[in-house]
Amino acid sequence: MPCLLLGCSTAEPGPQARPAMWLVEDADTRIYVLGTMHALPRGTDWDEGKVAGAIREADELVVELSPAELAAAGDMFQKLAPRNAPLAMEARLSGAALTRYRALEASGDGFGGERFDDWAVMVLMGQRVARNAELSSADGVETRLTAEFEAAGKPIGGLETAEAQLMLFETLDAATQRALLTRAAEESGDAVKEVGILTAAWACGDVAALDRVINEDVDAVPAARKAIITDRNRRWSAWVKTRMGRPGTVLMAVGAGHLVGSDGVPAILEAEGMKVSRVQ
User: Fold this and answer.
1) What's the structural domain count of the chain?
2) Nearest to 131 by CA among 193, 223, 39
3) Less packed terminus of the chain by CB within 10 Å, N or C?
């Protein structure tokens, strides 16, 4: 029975959050692969159990963006997101999608969406949903891990640059960007509830529920799935295979959506003959 049905709150994970984690290992190398939420409710307790042991054991932390790249992400967004010329949202969205977009916009300061590419408007909408759901990146998994590893004097690396990560969206064709924006707008009325369900599934380590919640939307736009999920998972899996050539213990912490399903990092590594086990 999915953990969601066993009493996990859909509003806050609470003290019993136990996110899914895998171990990839050979004779002299251990790589813990932890599924993260980039933003969480304040006070979420997730770093106990096996995760606490992985944090202690690891010689280094690897996340999607290193601290330096994460610090550069805001400026990079401002560089890449603007359109060459404004385009009214009424020219992009209509009907329920436009109505729900305007409702989300009205929940705080305006987005100024007419000035930005479709993908960037979708990012701004996602940030607003997270705020409305009372999630904060300051309480996200990567933020706390970075602080712990920095305090311990352990190195922190990144799998991508801020520019490369945003260019995944910037280089999507116009039709794909519009499809993503339209779907995000159409579903924005239930977005806070869906974020709560996602957070609860993550807290329970319910990978089947995570697979359903995370992949349902992106599966509807195959070109986006390939660029944003599948291709990145394959690159990160290749990084793991290369890193296994050096001794040591690594904690690799990436968005939980990249670790579930048949094209998730653990599944790819296992299919390629690596020793992979679910440890939490």
Assistant:
1) 1
2) 39
3) N
DSSP class of residue 159?
E
- pLDDT at residue number 216: 76
pLDDT of residue 223: 85
The CA distance from 107 to 202, in Å, is 26
Cα 214–Cα 199–Cα 103 angle in degrees, nearest 5: 75
Q: Distance of alpha carbon 114 from its chain centroid, rounded? A: 26
Task: Determine how many CB atoms are found less than 10 A away from the CB of residue 204.
Answer: 23
CA torsion through residues 145, 148, 151, 157, sign: negative
Alpha helix ranges (H) inside 44-133: 49-57, 67-80, 95-105, 118-132
96 Cβ neighbours under 8 A, 6+ residues apart: 186
Give the position of tokens 């329970």. Answer: 204
Single-letter amino acid code for the residue at 36: T
